[in-house]
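Recall the central idea of this unit: under ordinary conditions, the amino acid sequence of a chain determines the structure it adopts. In this exercise we apply that idea directly, starting from the sequence alone.
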Amino acid sequence: MNPNWIAPSILSANFAKLGEEVDNVLAAGADVVHFDVMDNHFVPNLTIGPLVCEALRKHGVTAPIDVHLMIEPVDRIIPDFAKAGASIITFHPEASVHIDRTLQLIRDNGCKSGLVFNPGTPLHYLEYVMDKLDMILLMSVNPGFGGQSFIPSALDKLRQVRKIIDDSGLNIRLEIDGGVKTDNIRAIKAAGADTFVAGSAIFGQPDYKKVIADMRAELALAG
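Accordingly, the structure predicted from this sequence is:
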């Protein structure tokens, strides 16, 4: 797998033919399938649950499925997503009463675990749980809806988290989600990200292969 992961968010896909959409985007060079799970409580939108994850696995999708839980409370649904075929499960610290326990629950269910930080969420939640993290996801929009513009302050936050990861010596991926496009992905990579969620920037284009290739070319220029 590429060191830089491109993770199309199926939130922007055509749900009437989701299996075909996911097949096409993976054939076009994507690395990971990104799930945006919203409950109309923690965030103001309602999206998908474990059944969709299970359906894609039964359809034949073998790529990693990266599940971003924007739900509260979060613990109840983690085993269901693990059973449905999730590879990575991330959640927001505000959605868990016991963050360490929730991270351990994800790992106990056989998945990689991670924390998600909204634009206004401080990073202090990382302080005592770095050893339980496989992924840190920074939101570069406020969660709830696709198609929003990238919040520039996310670049400074990326640099901060990249330093925290590097100083820890741990193997933790740094993911960015929100407004990622071909024209800003190079700057995002330069700030420290290695996993790039893109929804409308990919699924909104007629040629998935071209847009992913263009993104890879920009990533290569970031060094």
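The chain has a mean pLDDT of 96.
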